[in-house]
Specification:
With 396 residues, this protein is an alpha+beta fold. The chain is built from twelve helices and 17 strands. The relative contact order is 0.18. It binds glyoxylic acid and manganese (II) ion (2 copies).
């Protein structure tokens, strides 16, 4: 199998040009944006040139299909609103490079909306049967656009959903997006498990009023509710969480968001992640009870949005072994087994077939930021490990 490092790196840089943004190598390529659709059209062309049959499904997942039964590899090509050039893109281009370097049966995929403009790993959740398409169509982004409306411009490309029965397994390569490999100096992470996640929108509704004339004791201030909720959960989680548990309020909308108005509404995202499904449930109880207590105390209305989530999953032992052998061959003594704290499409695909996940280091552990980066020689090490693992798995 003759992989071409220069072709691989050149394609990664070309993909980055779609939505290139910010300082350094950043990209802004959210799902269904013009840059995302243009990038997917370019990827479809590269798949065709590699001898794969491109197929878009109704939600914009793009497959490059080998004939007959094949091993599926890839990741996603949408980005966060401020994202890096490698998150998702690396796995898609590495899969493409391995597929076009061999005559063995490898199909390539770029899933849609992994970054959750509309939810959590939306495209692969729908494809794998974890999320029903008509329910998904009514999911909204933070600007109130529905997924149904957002995917409309891709319908001229859409064919049917790809039959997962043709794939024998799925391997995803990704950057780590955390500090472990960078700190230890290892070049490769072979992932054992991916954490579970819960994500829901919470809204406090009080009374919008004049910031100069409304006495403090008469206020029904939605921001004060959010602030108090945040302090309380940080305190109450203490007896429940481990050092690996994480939680984030990453999006806040205050209405009407003006200096001289007591805010009438606070709408915010509440996300929490852990490797233990039971702990995710205990955290949910704390979140719901605390929000209700705060709402009662400040005389506010409270609304919980629908809760999206994925369970923790273990990676397939056989596919892990192939990655370990590849890592030991290409980077002897410089790889480690590790869990993934980031979500990946592999979680959804594990409903359908055995899956595995391979990590390359992230410089300073930075990701979901324009500054995300990895040394190009480290990207090539990852590509070589992937190639080696696939060669052993698909040996004639
Ligand atoms: C995926 O990007 C995640 O948020 O883990
Ligand atoms: Mn990703
Ligand atoms: Mn991401």
């Amino acid at each position: 199998m003759a992989i071409d490092e220069n072709r691989f790196l050149a394609d990664l840089h070309t993909l980055r040009e779609f939505g290139a943004s910010g300082v350094g190598k950043g990209v802004t390529r959210p799902a269904y944006s013009q840059a995302d659709i243009a990038a997917r059209r370019w990827l479809a062309m590269r798949m065709q040139e590699a001898g794969l049959q491109p197929q878009f499904d109704p939600v914009g997942n793009l497959f490059g299909l080998a004939q007959g039964s094949s091993l599926l590899m890839g990741s996603h090509s949408d980005s966060q609103p401020e994202g890096g050039w490698l998150d998702g893109a690396l796995g898609v281009i590495a899969a493409l490079e391995v597929a076009r370097a061999t005559d063995r049966p490898i199909s390539v995929v770029s899933f849609q909306d992994e970054e959750g403009r509309f939810g959590v790993t939306t495209g692969s959740a729908i494809w794998s049967g974890g999320l029903n398409l008509s329910q998904a169509d009514s999911l909204t982004d933070h600007a109130g656009v529905t997924l149904g409306a957002a995917r409309a411009p891709m319908q001229d490309l859409a064919q049917g959903f790809v039959d997962p029965g043709q794939f024998t397994g799925f391997i995803e390569m990704h950057i780590e997006q955390g500090p472990s490999l960078d700190e230890s100096g290892d070049l490769i992470g072979v992932v054992t498990d991916i954490v579970g996640i819960r994500d829901m929108v919470i809204t406090f509704e009080g009374q919008q009023n004049h910031a100069g004339t409304t006495p403090m004791h008469l206020r029904r201030d939605a921001f004060q509710a959010l602030s108090s909720f945040n302090s309380l959960i940080n305190d109450r989680f203490r007896n429940v969480v481990t050092p690996q548990t994480v939680w984030t309020i990453g999006h806040v909308g205050l209405h009407p968001n003006a200096s001289s108005i007591v805010p009438g509404r606070a709408r915010f995202s509440m996300q929490w992640r852990d490797g233990d499904a039971a702990r995710l449930i205990r955290m949910e109880d704390i979140i719901r009870t605390t929000a209700q207590e705060v709402a009662d105390q400040l005389d506010l209305n409270l609304r919980f949005g629908s809760m999206l989530g994925l369970e923790p999953v273990a990676m397939d032992q056989g596919l892990q072994r192939a990655l370990v052998q590849g890592a030991e061959h290409v980077a002897p003594g410089h790889w480690r087994r590790m869990p993934s704290g980031a979500l990946h499409d592999a979680t959804n695909v594990s409903r359908l077939m055995p899956v595995a996940l391979l990590f390359a280091p992230s410089i300073n552990g930075i990701s979901h930021d324009f500054a995300e980066d990895t040394a190009e020689e480290d990207l090539v090490v990852g590509l070589r490990v992937l190639e080696r693992a696939v060669s052993s798995l698909l040996a004639p």
